[in-house]
């Protein structure tokens, strides 16, 4: 993996930790961060030794959204925000084969909210506030926010967040279903680590297929989705992980999954 300037990446016990590392800019998303995030995700997708990911932020914020810094030598020039690039990289994150846990250590706003919408499980520190904020600057969410937000929190909360540009306490997002657990800030990373460690003991093939079925099913009609789920489940019965799971259950021992 190349040297990284905007991310910290560490591997521990089959879990890859990706830390957005621009704390002086509240981890605002720059073009370089997008390039580095895409490279790390693509490397991770092909790494059979990584069975879960945790995404978090350095410092006091998770992610403040796109970096809208204006060049002081040319204050009339607009910042370089490539929405198509952001959308493409966030799609890579959403389609990551391994389970992705967001450990939201502080404010997630605008593009930061769009980023965590692409994660599978969201843990958050107590006291965190989350919001869209695009409306405050006359902007539109360009990385999937208008599509994913109502599907994760419901139409009415999504419209309130989009129209007002306000942030809401993390407990609201827990009630709406986006945040799965709220923990004291000092316990956040340990809780994310415990959750990720538990996922590494599951069948990586089974989790990958479950994730694909859920994501695909959201875009399919009922009949197509159910038929596809049955087809994949039947195919899964021929896998080594299926056989190992059944044998381990019968023998009352912990399974040793290989992902095949």
From TrEMBL:
**What PROSITE patterns does UniProt report for this protein, alphabetically?**
ENOYL_COA_HYDRATASE
Which spans of this chain does the record mark as coiled coil?
none
Mind telling me which CDD domains this protein's record contains? crotonase-like
From the record, give the transmembrane residue ranges.
none
Q: Which InterPro entries match?
A: ClpP/crotonase-like_dom_sf, Enoyl-CoA_hyd/isom_CS, Enoyl-CoA_hydra/iso
Q: Which family does it belong to?
A: Belongs to the enoyl-CoA hydratase/isomerase family.
Name of this chain's protein: Enoyl-CoA hydratase
Q: Which organism is it from?
A: Amycolatopsis deserti
